[in-house]
What we know:
This protein is mostly helical. It contains 6 helices and 4 strands, in the order E-E-H-H-H-E-H-E-H-H. 54% of the residues lie in helices and 9% in strands.
Amino acid sequence: MTTLAVAENNTTLDLAYIRVAATPDLGGVGAHSVAGTPSTAEIALLAEPIDVNRAPQLGLVNRMAPRGVLEETVRKMATRIALAPSFTVKQTMSLIASAASERDWPANSQEG
């Protein structure tokens, strides 16, 4: 599970497996949990680049950083998290993971 994703505002994302006659790994198609199945199918099957404006709309990126300050942006975010009480951070992440797991549970439990 990706916790936070930050990209520079000149970034293009791409899932190009189909262009090289390969199937995506689970990380690639796992985007369905944030982008939804129709968007993930579009991304994987058409292999079109996703521009910086669409990535946050799909939930693939949390924040955009101005060009040249990605590392500084990420460092500031990491520092804020590191300064929070560790128990609270761990419990919050556990709750988020649990909620995500429960949301996906019916789809994961269907026999087929």
